[in-house]
Records
---
Amino acid sequence: MNAVELDSVTLRYDDVVAVSDVSFSVEVGRMVALIGPNGAGKTSLLKMLAGLLKPTSGRIWVLGREPWRARGLVAYTPQREEVYWDYPLTVRELVAMGTVRRRGLLRWLDARDGRVEAALRLVMLEDLSSRRISELSGGQQQRAFLARAICQGGEVYLLDEPIAGLDAPSEAVILEILKKLRDQGKTILMATHDISATLEIFDYVALVRNGLVAFGPPSDVLTSENLTKTYGGAAVALHLDDIERVAGWR
Ligand SMILES: Nc1ncnc2c1ncn2[C@@H]1O[C@H](COP(=O)(O)OP(=O)(O)O)[C@@H](O)[C@H]1O
Ligand SMILES: [Mg+2]
């Protein structure tokens, strides 16, 4: 079965075409990197898949359902810039919010919930669970959001730039957690700018620049021609150097 399927999806905000006629599908249990420059429509795509925005035209299915009907099966983590980090919430409280849908609002802070503890352990934040999220490093904050997503018990993870701005060790920790989720049969779509980080572990890359430039296994898709279409000329040499160094395919 397909975890997600997009058929000629277009999204307009007034006169801006954020997503233009995008079609692709992803089988259950795959990891997909959505790669493209700022303004390419990555966030818009993830929000439509999460059922938070409706396409202007085209169709989307998530696990065979319309996105708003699949919300209980989807975990979405927003891009850093969309989070109000000063909110006085502890790590455990943030993670426990992931259980609201299943347990009901009144019980969401129940400290005995084993799922909260299990998620904190998986992202290695059990020792920091009483800290406020504003006091964490960027990598720890992203892990806290990942733990909240894990608590939602989703089958499909939609992650908006979870490794942006992280140092290499923090990035590696997040990618390890994502691999574990994939090994459990979860499907992951992750927006990122960091091509080299995704080469070795992602099943597919979707190159986006409002339209879909290319979709397929990283080694097929990450050609200089496709990267030029996605990023324009200047950035490409740099990316190709990265690809060479990390994957050694060229
Ligand atoms: N709420 C909005 N209103 C108007 N335009 C928007 C809105 N959100 C995004 N856009 C525009 O849509 C395009 C795609 O944005 P976005 O999906 O955020 O791309 P990305 O996540 O790849 O940076 C950009 O041109 C952006 O300026
Ligand atoms: Mg974005």
Note: The radius of gyration is 18 Å.
---
Amino acid sequence: MAWQRVGSVGDLSEGEMMEVEIGDQSIAIYRLDDGFFATDNICTHAFAKLTEGVLDDGCVECPLHAGIFDVRSGEALDGPVEDDLKVFPTKVEGDDILIDA
Ligand code: FES
């Protein structure tokens, strides 16, 4: 495990998402009612950043062709997307959001 700090709990309100970069990797961090989740930020269909889309009810909608993913599991649910998103373990320590990327 290589936990890395990607932000503070206060950086996101429930229902919000943000992009973080680790090396050359773009990762999306989401805050839902049951905690923080992290996935690859690049859609598996073509090149679009999911953090520029819409987060609703635990699902993110891609801004380009409206593909939909479950952000907890990474599962591709609807639209033209077929491949699931990679998900990363997250945890909170004090005020810090950590992910294992
Ligand atoms: S790039 Fe995301 S649905 Fe096409």
Note: The chain has one domain: 3-100.
---
Amino acid sequence: MFRGICKNMICPNAECPCHTDNKPGKVVTHGFYNSRAGKRRRYRCFICGKTFCSTKNTPYYRLQHRRSKFDEVAALSVEGVNKSAISRVKGIAWNTVHHWLEKAAESCGKFNCNKSKVMDIRELQADEIRTITGGKKTPVWIFAAMDIWSRYWPATVVGTRSFENTKKLFRAVSKQTNPQNVPLIMTDGFEFYKSASRRCFAKCLYAQVIKTRRKDRIIKVEKRMIIGSKNQIEKALQESDDSTTINTSFIERLNLTIRQSTAYLTRRTTCFSRFPEYLGNQLEILRGHYNFLRPHRALKFGNEKRTPAMQAGLSNQRYSFREVFTFCYILKILCEIKMKMESELQALPNAA
Ligand SMILES: [Zn+2]
């Protein structure tokens, strides 16, 4: 009767009663089915009786190719290869590549969102990248922020260069900041950073670097202390392991990484994104890759290769795309259970 209970699997059926107790061990193996790549195992929940395969709720579900091919497409896309080139190299249709990358982006988005926790941000830099989409008429801006100590990229916003978007970026970062810390924020001279940092952070120090250019050469660099006294900012810089003066070098280096890793953002490209959503999706994959998969050169300690997320204390291992894409499967179920339990808990006192 008990043909192999699967200890780690949870029933993916949202209406199954075993969802609420959050305990694996209700799933048994249930024969095989044939796919193009060969025999695949089938599973059955013995509470609700539903059968399912191991790829249910992952981007691999109903995939007509090998899973490794899907991972390779995602890996190529974060190395700055455009969709047409991927489709030629891998021998699959452009539409398939596009569809896969959308699924990968959704999966990475969930991973990024669920892995981000409150961390000690002491030094923060923010900047924008200008690019074009669709009609080429309105420029689109990519806002990015970076925690300098860990090189972690906590948030990014795609849209117009407005106060709303600046606030959105800082709000996303402040949610991940330990409220007891007073972060030192450094940006360029863009007007909205000052009020956005006042709004979003309870306490912060803020400084600007303003570069004046003439004929593509920087002729003057001006450093301004905006929020906080000179002593406070100097003390924060003394405590910093990375910066000795007010600067935006680290975020500018991240901008270069973003530009080189996204085919949409290469200069003078014909592969600009036709819709801002595509750009947002691609950046979601890239952010997951940068934070959790790719070892950072500045974080190399002897033979140990660390990712920004490891340095920030958000993970204790280097992930692979396979782990990111299958992670959501377990996660989605756990989130649903948590939400259900919370809503039940909230409903209890009202009922009483
Ligand atoms: Zn079930």
Note: Residues 11, 13, 16, 18, 45, 47-48, 50 surround zinc ion (CB under 6 Å).
